[in-house]
Amino acid sequence: MLQSTDARSGALHGAAWDESSPEQIDAAVAAAASAADAFAAKSNAQRAAFLRALAQALTDNAAALLPVADRETALGLPRLEGELARTAFQLRGFADAVEQGAAQAFLDETAMAGAPPAGRPRLSRIQAPLGPVAVFAASNFPFAFSVLGGDSASAFAAGCPVVLKAHPGHPQLSRDVAAIAATVVEQCGLPAGVFQLVEGASVAVGVQLVQSPAIAAVAFTGSFKGGTALARLAADRPRPVPFYGELGSVNPLVVLPAALAGGPDALAQTLADSICLGAGQFCTSPGVIVVFKDAPGDAFVQQLRTRLAAAAPHAMLNAGIRAAFERGVDQWRQHAKLQVLVDGRQPQGNPRPFLAQVDVADFLADHRLHEEVFGCAALVVRVDDSAQVVALLNAIGGTLTSTLWGVPAGDVQPDEAVLAVVRTAVQVSGRVLFSGVPTGVAVTAAQHHGGPFPASTAPFTTSVGYAAVQRFVRPLALQDAPGWLLAREGAFL
Ligand code: NAP
Question: Residues near ligand 1 with C-beta < 6 Å?
Answer without folding.
Answer: 136-141, 145, 165, 167-168, 200, 203, 206-207, 221-223, 226, 229-230, 246-248, 283, 372, 374, 400, 449, 463
